[in-house]
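Extended Data, record Ints3-like C-terminal domain-containing protein
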Amino acid sequence: PTLELLKQLFTRQNTDGDMFVVAALRYWCRDYEDKLAELLANLLSTRYPATSPNKRKRAGAKQNQQATGPPTGEQVLSHLDQLRQHCRASADLQLYQSENMQKALQQAQAATTDSLRKSYGDLFALAEANEENESPPITSSRRHGGNSKGYKKVGASTRERSATKRPPPRDRGTESSEQSSE
């Protein structure tokens, strides 16, 4: 697979029952999973750049849209979500676990509108799920979130985030925060 070929493939309208793009991507996953993940991440990142959208507009939005080419960000997300829906085994989802794909999904999630985030929430959840899988080795943030007055079930993710925001003064305040929670 090449980037140009993927661009052409992803310009195809995504309709229910049309499995052409999914079949091609699954076929390439068998032998070229790493390369395909890199190319898809590149394609997704160029549709949802990390730079501020306001800076892009000043440079000339029409020129930038022509430079990125025909498949829109929504088309790319649509095909990736369709692939996710048809990957039954977790081994098939390894494509989404590559570091490049994780960064691209997180970048796209940050740059999309609320309606797109809702539409492709399950796709973006693959990036969030990987973040959670990487978190357990760093148990200090989990301990703070788990020991904070038993609020683990309701709003645990919010509590964990607030606990991870507190640690910059961790060197000084770790002992006092542990004593106050006991």
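Summary. DSSP finds ten helices and no strands in the chain.
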